[in-house]
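Why this split exists: single-chain examples teach little about how molecules sit against one another. For that reason, every record in the complexes split bundles all components of an assembly together and asks for one structure covering all of them. Below is a record exactly as it appears in the raw files.
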Amino acid sequence: MLTTLCLLLAALLLLVLPAALGLVRLLRLGGALVMAGLAVLAVLALLAPSAAVMALPLGPPWAAALVALDPLSAWFLLLLGLTGAFAALLINPGPRHEMVCFPLFLFGMALCITAADGFCLLLGFEAMSLASWAILHERRAARLYLMFAIFGGGCLMAAMGLLAAGAGSLGFAALRAAPPEGFVALAVLLLVTLGAGAKAGLAPLHLWLPLAHPAAPAHVSALMSAVMVKVALYVILRMVFDLCGPAQASFWGMPLLLMGAASALLGALRANLENDTKAILACSTIENVGMIAVGLGLALMFRGADMAVPAALALAGALLHVMNHGLFKCLLFLGVGVVLEQAGQRRLDALGGLLHNMPVLGWAMLVGALSAAAVPPLSGFASEWLLLQALLGAWRTGDALFQFAALVALAMVAMAVALGAAAMLRLWGLVFLGRPRSPRVAGAEDVSGPGRAGLLLPAALSLLLGAFPALALGLMQPVLAQWLGPAVAMPGGVLGLSAGDAGARYMVLPAILLLGVLALVLWRGAQWRGGGGATRAPAWDCGFIAPPVHLPFGNAATQPSGEGFAQPISRMLAGPLMAARENVAVPPPGSMASAEYSASSADPTWRALTTLRAARHAVSNRVDRFRALSVRHALGLLFATLVLLLAVLAGLERP
Amino acid sequence: MMLGLAAIVTQMMHLALVLAMAPVLVGLVRLVKARLMGRRGPALLQPWRDLAKLLRKRPVLADGATEISRAAPYVACAATLFAAVLVPGFAQGMLLAPLADLLLLAGLLALARVALALAGMDVGTAFGGMGAARELSFSACAEPVLLLCILVLAMIAGTTNLDAMIVAFREGGVGLRVSLALIAVALLAVGLVENARMPADNPATHLELTMVHEAMILEASGRHLALWELQAALKLLVWMALLSAVFMPWGMAPAGAGPLAWLLGLVAWLGKITALAVALAVFESAIAKMRVFRIPEFLGVALLLAALAVALLFVSTGLA
């Protein structure tokens, strides 16, 4: 099995050739096949878990490179394989360097996930960062992205160094045998949370994400949001849950819990304020990564308190959400890419009414949007049900600090769920419903060819996982057994999910059946008095008259705009946190100019960064004065420094 | 066997009861409000007559309306009916009791809300979009309160299953708890906002600028409008049944009880719902509508009350 894995990885590297030669069709087909192969391999590895490690005949000078496919790796590899295959189907011809970097990006993620030693893990992580950086086509976004990537990589290298210093080797088996203790362990936790958190987009290190994800072609954006941030979460799971050993205190979950809750709320709020479709999806990624981080934090807390059942609940919720979010976010990003290609627009205010021309895309994206909105019976609800149940059980740990942290996290996550739903409805509704806002949008054509499969398959998988979350739980069982012992109780069965204690269940199948039966009954019942088929008429709209002839799609200004739709949330909730402002410029009396409305907001981290930059300027201006000193002053300063240093030295040397 | 039969029978009776009762409940609130204003008011069965009239008319879809406008009323109404079927009324241990999870209940109401908002946005009219935006932002303020209330209930009862919760409340000797009283107030506030009742929205008006719920169904007509009206009535009933089941579980027939206990439970349930409806009518007549942008303050108070309830529970379980 590991040999096949290595062959597939090599095949991924070989795909650079067709990419460099500009053979897009071959790249599409080859990429989809290789990624599908990886997904199949991952499923096989989950069905027959093994701890085998394979040493490659290459690697760094001091040791051979190791790869392995344990259940945790296999779970993330499954996500990578599935979404990678869907994204590969929608590759569009682009500049040569973008084409070449795409297989490298996939290779980096696959290597990071399947590595069994620290060197390969970091190599894959950095390859993923660099390859995706090279694809970004906006300079400012790319620079910010690179800064955060360097920061994250540096933290992870330091953490790996601390781990390896105790173990004397970089192999995972050796690291596991010598888990860090005391302050070293704390430093590792902090460095991994910061380093991988920066890559995952956890607040307050999320700043690059809403800029960088929209700045790539759709298939790369899809993978960045669906998988790349999950690879960072995988690194957290691997280094904190696995390599640091099982004996960690409960408070290890606190940083993840709090950062996760903050990300969830901030991401969901920002998603409601953005006007660019891709930026909305990127902000929603911050929200969902936050939810997953909350689940991971809770799992650490519960495991520290020796509560295996709720720990399994939290971890299963987090892992299920990893898969669900990967699928629906991949679908949504790919769909937005098709919209951009067909309608030429990414702004909410320029689209509209696309459901008439793009029914396949529209309905597929509705599945994704409703999954993201956590509406039953779709997949997002199942995983968020598990996460919320874990949060509702967090008070059982008994520690007052955790209880209050979980209380705050619960309120923030609840608000994030509702805000996330609002953001998804705003996105889908303004793009696909209403009237077209320009002739180009009215002429858009539906998705066809292999791209159709790349959109319909993730939608179908989202529906499947929504109806049968037990399917995913069954595959996930070895992952949970790996951390919580082979006797771990899975939170769910054929009928649906259960939260372990007395009777808290989400019975998915009966619920879906009943919902269908009730809808059918109502449909028949509504025909009861006759009434006849529906007819068409102009919209009533409280008596507004029909638009003039020169506006074939009506006056776009009378439709709700992106900013207008965001206004209630912006005014109600975003005031202090997001510095949301509204400006209405009314022309003076007698002027025929129209009034202008504009809204603005700023991320709190961005504001903090701006303050920091101003402080740095102030300090550097002060320091600059030294350059203008005369020779006399400079020599005097030098002498004074020398005396001071000698005095310090004398003080230190004194026994 | 007997238990299973009783479960099926009570469930079917409950389904028929909520369907029949929901419009009557709306009629009752309107009637009491009219009497308080010194008018004679419409008959108790007027909402039913309206529904029957609307069902006889053919729906008129706006130009540019998609399949969303056709499907949304059925989805929303089915989800709300599902929620209504789950909340125990006159008897416990109904067939669907194992499904009655509070988070699922919240999810079903969210599904109905999503369908409603999509229907509002479908034609691209200004009012529909405005109503949808306001509805969604209200829900963002209400959701944390709801979840904290669920946390309090789950901490006291040990589960989020509604049926098991009521059993625990009736048999476990929960007694009078400050936390329960606090979240009762918080849940009332959420219920008022979710049902587009008085401080948040005026259910009696069609004045464009004040409305939230009505704005989203402006373009609906015929049987679609009938379904939206039924959905709103059912949602009101769900909230009243939920409040009475959790905070006033007296008189409910226990699981496996006979017809006599059902009758007793029915009388008790009708009494409780009527009392809540009259209270709602009195409350709505007594206060004025709030500005839309003051709703977060209204729900913020509810959030504080719920957080206080949770904190009190933490302290009391910590001491115990």
